[in-house]
Fold:
Amino acid sequence: MVDERQPAADVSQGWGVPFTAVHCAHCGEEHLVPEDAVGPRCPFCLQTPVMTQPVHLEELPEQVVPYAVSASELARILERWMEGVRFRPADLHPQALVQRARRYLVPLWLVDGRVEGVWRADVGFDYQAVSYQDRYRDGAGWSSQEVQEGRVRWEPRVGRIDRTYENVISPALEDHRQLLRRLGDFDLEQRTAYQPEAMRGATVRVPTLSPQAAWTGAEMAFVRTAGKECQRAADAQHIRHFTLEAAYHDLNWTLLLLPAYVTWYREGERTWPVLVNGQSGRVSGVRRADARKANTTSLALGGVAALLFVIGAILALSGALLPPLLALGGLVLIVGLMVGIVAPIPAISVWIHNRRTASQLEEWKRP
Structure:
């Protein structure tokens, strides 16, 4: 582990790629972006301009999960993601999203270490219990029926553990849960050694948790891993109340980068970012509908309904002189009534849709 904190210029040199460190005042995140691609807005939230400033890292990346989604596949994925959105904003178009897409790398810690200590837990074993139920049947009277029920037998266990675990996952970001909730899972078995060529043109999220700050999460991950192994060693189907009093030795931290894409579209005055898992193709973004388009459509239908009412009324009144016009006027009035009923639907449906997307956005922000 590197103990000295390095300035941004040294980090950029160590990565083998000319990066510029930027900070966003809106989302508070720091990024390393290519020197020739510093955009006017934050590469993640896309809401406010960024400022260049020094950033400190304790580790250089050693491994990366390669991209499995190409540009052509990204276009098809985004097109499927947009299906079903009515009154789509003009800017919400798959080709536009692909053109704006930028590779975005998310950091994650992998920790190796030896765990030595004492564990305690209740381990559970499945078994079948036989009982009998009395039932009454017409004509046959009372009878007993055998019933088998699945139950768990719990037994306390205590043991010692001295094991070495490799590649235990620990977050490198404070918002790791929220971000992975959106991106989904990654297959870490596909990771490869870090190559500077893979970083060209990519934006890298700077870890907000150093190895020291990330230790709490790493320790919990070691405990979970040890608990699963103790359950297997006891040949049990369940485990509960697992505690571990342990010392940790020979810790080694590896910085891994996960692949993603960030793109965006505009709806009204706001920019909406879209995240794509660069390995699985999972898309996470708010699919907004254009309220102005829907409102215009509702107003147009309302105007048509009003015009049909006027025409129908004139025809109905003219029916006093020409009786055939009375029936025609009634038909036009009925059509106008139906159009009037349908007219608010576009505006209401888009309002409901956008309300749902707002609640989805709040769900992603949940800790």
